[in-house]
Write a structure and sequence with these properties.
heterodimer, A: mainly alpha, 5 domains, two-stranded antiparallel ribbon, 2% strand, globular, B: alpha/beta, Alkaline Phosphatase, subunit A, two-stranded antiparallel sheet, 11 helices, 17% strand
Chain lengths: 723, 465
């Protein structure tokens, strides 16, 4: 045998050996991954009985796992710390002074539970928890790429997310609507708005190769659906079989096939409007006036079409030249995507009119505009629809390259999760594929759906999930810590008709949530650090920095400037002067009040990230973000110290305090600490603060001295960290 | 969390712009003792800073760095059938005639690198540069091309090479951001800040854009009514509160980091205007760059600023020349490029001369190039379309095999032929020159050990000294 593998054979043989090895590695990875805990059907674990004194089953599991590891948990946090943590974690806002006093004075056994119920019912709950979902689905008010067009109706999806969390919309419905609301409940406005999820991918409307762009959007939707709903890094399998998880490349495209029928129009009418007979005749008149205007542009439009179409990829060229009614589904998709560029450039055709034509055009346009004022406006939303019962074919793409299609694939679930294949019932104008996907995702015993979401809720309260990579439940994330808690919560979610609030309630009422961050017992500390230095089993609380939104919202709250309540549309806040000249800048809202809305309502433009939020780890809006980074940087210090808006909030608060406290330094300091840190200063702080105001501060005006003190308080670790 | 390695430790602490004293001091110590022993680097390297002149819009390699005599002969004829027809951005393909270059190329220096007469000042540095003539990109449009050149992906969201570099090399300067983005003027870089973003790696590593005007870094200074003394006293009071809180709480690095971050912020209040103020530069230096000449002024300012940042230890500096796709000569290539070359050739050459005489060139890696080149086929009669299939860049400074030409394009400059260099290979090479190994510089994201080049990349050995 040896002689056969002489030196000159090595080169030839090596690739075969290598491929063989790869297959072996893959097969064994697949084998072990199949036994991975998160891929097993969900079975409700038995609550441990050794710790009978636990009314909350989370405690029973938790204590059992600590006992097993030989760890004693640290002490519980004090009431003041706990209340701030609870408020911040549930609503993103701190408690006000009255709420703190009331809680400290309430010695009834259910004092804490009462607060939990109050916060669960607060509209601020959805404004805080909605943000986590928006991070996952890379929500943005613009499409990205060079033009970065604004998506004027995206906010309706944002508000729907907020309201869904507030109304405790069952999670199965919450995700089903996002995937297939248009098929499942076509008459329900909310369900249709929810399909905005499928439109959040960055989109290059000004591109050249729409075959590639269509594929990029499909890839993005496939990847984000897998990450957000299944906690799977399916994207790795786009170009090759997954290295850690048993995902074969064709399974990636089988999963993608569920989405292949989607068409992406810009604005879809929402509901119908009824016109009075007078309005009807006006509408007809307006229609003929529009035709008249179009007539004037006809020649130019034709030229424009020719100019644009020649630069596009061949398939898109054919699609655009095919009359709409004769287009295949793929052609409709390509034409819809490419038409956005044509439509955008049509708006600039006016320049091609001769001066005398412009006068005529202007007059006609004015007449139309006057008429239109009296007609009701058709509300629109951003979502998806399909057009045909048959969806276009999906192919496995070699190396994920759209130019290298291989065999055709049918919609299918990842095989190692479910061997059963989808039963798809086509509708008259929709493939029904996404309905099949939604039904599969929301099966009560689905191994991933409920585990993934309860883990995200856990992460929101502890900083890290029980599965730390909350969008990767695959092999790379093992071992899991306390999988019984995860499984029990997941089964509880299903048992409670997918009520997420029921999971929130269980978690915040559990003992691990109420732990203190500082462990005072040295023995406990030593042992805990020895056995579980990473705190994987949660034997003490972790200190976390406030999120970008929490920082801004807490400052608005402390200064009394917060304008609470939902906001329709986006808040166009004032950009710093040095950014205002950018092509991606916007004109700020006229209404000052809007600028004091909570951060979730601020405009999110992909090419102009909010500089203040970005400093505090607001994530890139092109990617799904499962858990934000938590950094401490000088940019944060600069933003908090020198942003004139924060300065203004400190000034406003100082003015309010001085109205009540006058020139009494003692009272001023007392009021400042209460407003910002929600506690009174101790004697040393009082003295140091008095010296600052009366002696060391270099501000001249008494109001500014107080404002500087308050501004400093807003910059403290105590304010910025959550214990 | 217990840091597993120094990189991870510094990562936990947050270096880069957000550097806290401890993190950056470690990097400085390493630098001071012995660069090649720097445990953050995988290979010995003298490079302290990377400066990338980004010619935004796609400069024409055929008219600048890659002479094509055959093109002169074929001019006016359509693309010969022996060439595959590419899909170009503006739809000019085989049907538009080939356009001759009106430039004359001469060989310069001992190395005899041919450069066009549009680059008379660079010509004096022919022996300092290595020209890579076989770059291959994937982005057909500006936004995709610029994104690809910066992040190895035409799609948004990945960390830029600058972010990876700072993540890998740590900080070498305790009063300035470690990744700075400059531009000569004009519009926004297509795609905006994501071209210097940190993607999924911490925000600490993202580039900081130095803006035009009185506030080069956002919020670096307090509102005008706040005097330095007033700010300092406020900070002293804040420090007292933060120290006291630290002593009463669970000891964590973060509380130290925050105290340090405010001190760094304070230092920047002086260091930013200091670096922005050129009054201590000699007249000779200012003239070298051409700062008082209307034509060269804007680029000169950016190039001189780049040198000042190099001196202060800023790790990664990107200078957009012609920002807002100025090099995008779809028509009137002659007018467009001759103006832009007049604006940028002198300042860029001055930068090289200035670094050299200060002994900084061997500690700096200099890169020059755009997101793509331009087609040999004409557009609108006298312009050229985007060409990502074969174009040129040049490199200079420490670790670069100066005076060499690497790779080639075909006879007309349409496709890379010899040693095609995909952008990921270029990135892997830049990292290697800076002492970092692409495969080892990873960041775990969504369960995958991500690296700068997304997938496997090959270092272009021919470029290495």
């Amino acid at each position: 045998m040896h002689s056969l593998l002489g030196k000159h054979h090595i080169k030839l043989v090596f690739p075969f050996i290598f491929c063989g090895l790869l297959i072996l590695v893959y097969a064994s990875a697949a084998e072990t991954a199949r036994t991975s805990p998160s891929y097993q059907a969900l079975i409700r674990p038995k609550i441990p009985t050794e710790t009978i004194s636990c009314p909350n089953p989370i405690d029973a599991f938790w204590k059992a796992s600590l006992n097993k590891a030989g760890i004693i948990p640290g002490q519980q946090a004090n009431k003041r710390t706990l209340l701030r943590r609870l408020h911040m974690d549930m609503t993103g806002l701190p408690p006000n002074v009255e709420e703190v006093q009331k809680f400290l004075n309430d010695n009834s056994p259910d004092a804490y539970e009462k607060v939990v119920e109050k916060l669960l019912a607060s509209p601020a709950f959805g404004e805080h928890w909605g943000q986590q979902w928006l991070d996952l689905v890379r929500y943005s008010d613009s499409e990205g790429f060079k033009i970065d067009r604004i998506r004027p109706d995206a906010w309706k999806f944002r508000n729907w997310v907020i309201q869904s969390f507030n109304n405790d919309l069952p999670y199965d419905k919450f995700i089903s609507w996002q995937i297939a609301g248009d098929e499942l409940a076509p008459d329900n406005k909310d369900a249709r708005i929810a399909t905005g999820f499928l439109r959040l991918a960055p989109e290059e409307s000004n591109g050249a190769d729409y075959t590639q762009i269509r594929q990029d959007i499909l890839n993005d939707v496939t990847d984000v659906t897998a990450q957000a709903f299944l906690g799977l890094t399916l994207g790795c399998a786009r170009c090759h079989n997954h290295k850690f998880d048993p995902i074969r490349q064709e399974e990636y495209f089988q999963f993608q096939a569920f989405f292949s029928g989607i068409i992406y129009p810009d604005e879809i009418p929402l509901g119908s409007i009824s016109l009075t007979p007078r309005q009807k005749s006006m509408e007809e008149k307006a229609l003929s006036m529009r035709k008249d205007l179009a007539q004037m542009m006809q020649e130019h439009e034709k030229n424009l079409f020719e100019e644009i179409v020649v630069a596009l990829d061949p398939q898109t060229q054919i699609a655009l030249k095919t009359p709409p009614e004769k287009r295949t589904v793929t052609q409709s998709q390509l034409a819809t995507l490419a038409s956005k560029q044509i439509d955008r450039r049509k708006t600039k055709l006016y320049r091609r009119l001769k001066p005398e034509q412009r006068t005529i055009y202007d007059k006609k346009f004015e007449n139309l505009a006057n008429l239109a004022k009296e007609l009701p406006i058709q509300e629109a939303y951003m979502g998806v629809s399909e057009k045909y019962a048959k969806a276009p074919a999906t192919f496995r793409l070699a190396q994920g390259d759209v130019k290298k299609p291989k065999e055709e694939v049918q919609p299918g679930f990842p095989l190692w999760i479910d061997k059963e294949q989808p039963h798809i019932t086509a509708l008259s104008k929709s493939s029904g594929r996404r309905t099949a996907l939604a039904k599969w995702l929301t099966q009560p015993d689905h191994p991933l759906t409920s585990r993934v979401i309860v883990n995200r809720v856990w992460q929101g309260y502890f900083g890290a999930g029980l599965v730390a990579n909350s969008s990767d439940f695959g092999k790379a994330s093992e071992p899991y810590h306390q999988p019984e808690i995860l499984d029990w919560l997941a089964s509880e979610l299903v048992r409670n008709q997918y009520s997420l609030k029921s999971i929130h309630r269980l978690i915040v009422n559990s003992s691990p949530y109420k732990l203190a961050s500082k462990v005072t017992d040295q023995e406990v500390l030593k042992k805990g650090n020895q056995i579980d230095p990473e705190n994987n089993l949660v034997w003490h609380a972790e200190v976390r920095r406030l999120s970008a939104e929490q920082v801004r919202d807490a400052i608005l709250h402390a200064s009394g400037d917060l304008n609470s309540g939902m906001h329709e549309g986006v808040v166009r806040f004032a950009l710093p002067a040095s950014l205002a000249k950018s092509r991606y800048a916007w004109t700020k809202d006229e209404a000052q009040a809007a600028a004091k809305k909570r951060s979730i309502y601020l405009i999110q433009r992909r090419n102009m990230p909010n500089p203040s939020l970005e400093a505090f780890d607001f994530p890139d809006r092109n990617l799904s973000c499962a858990n934000r980074n938590d950094t401490v940087t000088a940019v944060q210090a600069l933003a908090l110290l020198n942003d004139p808006e924060i300065f203004d909030h400190a000034q406003n608060l100082a003015a309010n305090i001085m109205q009540k406290a006058g020139n009494n330094t003692h009272l001023q300091i007392q009021a400042g600490f209460l407003a910002i840190l929600k506690r009174s200063p101790d004697s040393k702080e009082l003295e140091q603060s008095r010296v600052f105001i009366e002696v060391t501060s270099a501000a001249v005006d008494p109001l500014e001295r107080l404002a500087d003190l308050l501004h400093a308080l807003l910059n403290t670790s105590e304010f910025l960290e959550l214990e | 969390m217990i840091p597993q390695s120094r990189r991870q430790f510094i990562q936990t602490m947050g270096n880069g712009f957000g550097s806290i004293a401890l993190g950056s001091m470690l990097a400085r110590d390493a630098h001071a003792s012995n660069l090649s022993d720097d445990p953050l680097r995988h290979h010995p390297s003298k490079v302290r800073s990377i400066v990338w002149f980004f010619l935004d819009g796609g400069p024409s390699h055929i008219d600048l760095l890659d002479p094509k005599p055959a093109l002169q002969k074929l001019a006016g004829a359509p693309l010969p059938p022996s060439f595959a027809k590419p899909q170009t951005a503006m739809g000019v393909t085989a049907n538009t005639p080939l356009l001759a270059s009106k430039r004359t190329f001469k060989k310069h220096g001992k190395s005899g690198i041919p450069l066009s007469d549009w680059l008379p000042n660079l010509a004096r540095h022919a022996d300092d540069i290595a020209v890579l003539r076989s770059c291959v990109g994937e982005g057909l449009t500006h936004v995709a091309g610029v994104s690809h050149m910066n992040t190895c992906s035409t799609l948004p969201g990945r960390p830029s090479l600058g972010a990876w570099s700072v993540y890998g090399l740590g900080n070498d300067c305790d009063n300035l951001p470690s990744f700075v983005v400059l531009s000569d003027r004009r519009g926004d870089v297509p795609g905006g800040s994501r071209n210097w973003g940190s993607g999924f790696i911490p925000a600490t590593y993202q580039g900081t854009r130095f803006l035009e005007g009185p506030e080069p870094v956002l919020f670096y200074a307090p509102p005008p009514q706040v005097t330095p003394l007033r700010q300092r006293r406020k900070l002293d009071y804040l420090n007292w509160l933060n120290e006291r809180h630290k002593n009463q709480s669970t000891p964590t690095d973060r509380l130290d980091a925050r105290i340090a971050s405010y001190e760094l912020a304070w230092k920047m209040q002086t260091s930013i205007p200091e670096v922005n103020n050129f009054s201590n530069e000699t007249r000779e230096t200012l003239n070298l760059y051409g700062i008082e000449n209307e034509t060269t002024k804007a680029a000169a300012r950016a190039c001189l600023m780049a040198r000042r940042l190099v001196e202060r230890g800023v790790r990664f500096i990107q200078v957009y020349l012609g920002s807002g796709s100025a090099w995008d000569a779809h028509s009137d290539l002659e007018g467009n490029h001759s103006n832009l070359c007049k604006e940028t050739d002198q300042p860029v050459a001055a930068f090289l001369s200035d670094l050299k005489r200060r002994g900084l060139l061997e500690e700096t890696l200099v890169i020059w190039g755009g997101e793509f080149g331009r087609t040999p086929m004409s557009e609108s009669g006298d312009g050229r379309d985007h060409n990502p299939w074969g174009f040129s860049m040049w490199f200079a400074g420490g670790g670069v095999k100066a005076g060499s030409i690497v790779g080639s394009t075909d006879d007309i400059g349409l496709y890379a032929v010899d040693r095609p260099a995909p952008i990921k290979d270029i990135h892997a090479t830049i990292l290697r020159i800076a002492g970092l190994e692409n495969d080892l510089l990873t960041y775990k994201h969504n369960g995958r050990d991500e690296r700068a080049t997304v997938t496997d990349a090959t270092v272009i050995d021919e470029l290495l000294a």
